Amino acid sequence: MTSSKILVVEDDRNLLDTLKYNFRKEGYSVVAAVDGAEALDVARREKPDLIILDIMLPKLSGLEVCRILRKEMTTPILMLTAKDEEIDKVVGLEIGADDYMTKPFSMRELLARVGAMLRRRRMTETQPAPEQPALQIGDIKVDIARHKAWKGTTTLDLTPKEFDLLAFLATNKGLVFSRDRLLEKVWGYDFAGDTRTVDVHIRWLRQKIETDPNNPQRLVTVRGTGYKLEG
To answer: Is the full-model pTM beyond 0.85?
Structure first.
């Protein structure tokens, strides 16, 4: 049984009750909010280990809640959306969400993703930062121990998952990784996930580290295989 605390933010009371029941059945401690303003209050007060955040919320949208919380904490955020528009998912990941799921979703898959995200968080927190010099890849510098990265002399403003992705690829410079492999190594998923998450994070990371994101020279696509970071 786990003592991890999950904040569920959902204005659909039936879905909220279902989520609370299933998470508690798995041994999690659960706190809840039904609108964006309450979500901020509860997150700041309870300091959960993971946040499940619906995009469509009263008072403040889930996107705005995510944007605010990401400036204050590195807590993993999984966004839920009932919308079909890809832009909602893309924007959610751009502002710092770690992953997303589209309603209706499988409770089994949601529980699997949550479990993987929490294991990844615990592993990151319990393992000491590696004692190694900062990695230099062209004009990109990555300091894993300090959780910082630069392009030239400019500090890169990366979301937690963007940094994790960059740090992993920098540590394995020149090696090609498939989307599924990146989901496993960076997100901690040991099951088939939505690889769209990887593509979107790659896109936004390129916006920050490439001189011309439309013609990437550093974070390149290996057609039919995956991605690699060139030295």
So the answer is: no
